[in-house]
Amino acid sequence: MKKAKLFQNGKSQAVRLPNEKSWDSLLKSLSLFSADFMNKRIQPSYDEEADVLYLNFKKPNRADDSELLDNDVLVRYEGEEVVGMTIMNASKKVGKK
Fold first, then answer.
1. Is residue 91 part of a domain?
2. Residue 61 structural domain
3. pTM for the whole structure
4. Pick from 70, 74, 67: which is nearest to 19 by CA?
5. CB proximity list for 18: less than 8 A, separation 6 or greater
6. How many structural domains comprise the chain?
7. 3-state SS of the chain: helix, strand, coil percent to 5?
8. How many CB atoms neighbour CB 85 within 10 A?
9. Residue range 19-26: average pLDDT?
10. For residue 25, is it left (φ>0), alpha (ψ between -120 and 50) or beta?
């Protein structure tokens, strides 16, 4: 049986799911972003041990809700605004592992 793995990086927590999924739902979710969501670029953070990429679109990031997409991507919201994403199994998504 495959199991999900919960891990923590600093004050953030995420869940790594055992299955590889497609990027279709992520691409569909791009319409949720406003045209100016990256006006102030914030560098991503990558946790190599957990193979997780953290993208924050707002500092400070005070997410009050999140949505786990079917491709191991967690989208974080503050109200209706997308404020960040957590991409699990990141290296597999770009063919590095």
1. yes
2. 34-97
3. 0.56
4. 70
5. 2, 3, 4
6. 1
7. 15, 35, 50
8. 19
9. 57
10. alpha
As to burial, measured by CB atoms within 10 angstroms (0-12 exposed, 13-18 middle, 19+ buried), residue 8 is: exposed
**Within-domain flag for 8:** no
Cβ burial of 52 (10 Å; 0-12, 13-18, 19+) is buried
Query: Does some domain include residue 53?
Result: yes
pLDDT band at 1 (very low <50, low <70, confident <90, very high): very low
Residues 30-45: what's their mean pLDDT? 71
- Phi and psi at residue 54, to the nearest 5°: -105, 125
Asked, for residue 97, whether it belongs to a domain, the answer is yes
- The residue ranking higher by pLDDT, 14 or 81, is 81
Is pLDDT above 70 for 23?
A: no
Please enumerate in sequence order all residues whose Cβ is within 8 A of that of 50, keeping only pairs 6 or more positions apart, or say none. 7, 9, 14, 16, 88
